[in-house]
Specification:
elongated; 232 residues; 13 helices; mainly alpha
Amino acid sequence: MNIWSAISAVAAAIGSGGAQMVDRIVQFLVSVGEGRGDRAVAFTVAMIALSAKMAKADGVVTGDEEIAFLDVFDIPAGEERNVARLFNLAKQDVAGFETYAERLAALFPDDEEIRVDILDALFHIAKADGVVHEHEVAYLTRIAEIFGLDSRAFDQVFARHVRAEGDPYPVLGIARDASNDEVRRHYRRMVVETHPDRLIARGVPEEFVRIANDRLAALNVAYAKIAAERGM
C-alpha cells in the first residue's frame, strides 16, 4: 500500500467522525513500525495534521494558507478529497500538535536537517497570508523546541521567511563580524547542504525539494547582499 492509498484508507475509516477520531487515528499511524513505507505514511499524515493545526494557530485558516499547504505537498489527482478531509478535521483546533511534533521528531532522531526542513515547510504555510502572527511564531517556536533545534537554527529559518528583505546575516546564519573567507566558506557549505540533489540523496520527501529551492534562492540573495556590502 502506497502513501496515498494508506491516507485514503484513513479518510475512509474516519467517515463522518469528528476531530477526536482523526486525532486517535493519526496518533496510531505515527506510532507504526519502522519500515520505510510505514515511516513515509506516518510522516505524511503527521505533516498534514501539523500543517492544519499550524494554520489554525492564529485563530483562522485562510485560503492562502490552504493553497500554501498544497504547494508543499504534491497530491496526486483523485486524492485531494481524502487529504482535504484529514486537513479540515485537524484544523478545527490546535490541540494535540505537540504529539505530532514529538512523533515526527522520533521518526528522524539522528537527522536534524530534516527537522529543519519540516520547520521550513511550516513557516512557508504560516507566511502565506502575508503575515506570521505572534501565535504562529509561538507555535513554531514550540515545535522547534520539541525537535531539539537550538535558537540559532530557529532564528535562521525565521529570518529567511519573516525578514528575508532585511539583514542578510541571520538568513545566511553567520555572524556579522565573520571574515570574508569565513563568509565564503559558510555560504558554499550551506549551498551544498541545501542543494535539492543532496536532499533527495538523504531520502527527504519529494514534497520538500520545492522548499529547498526557495531556501537556496534566499541564501543566494543574502550572500549577494553581503558580498556587495563588503566589495567581495
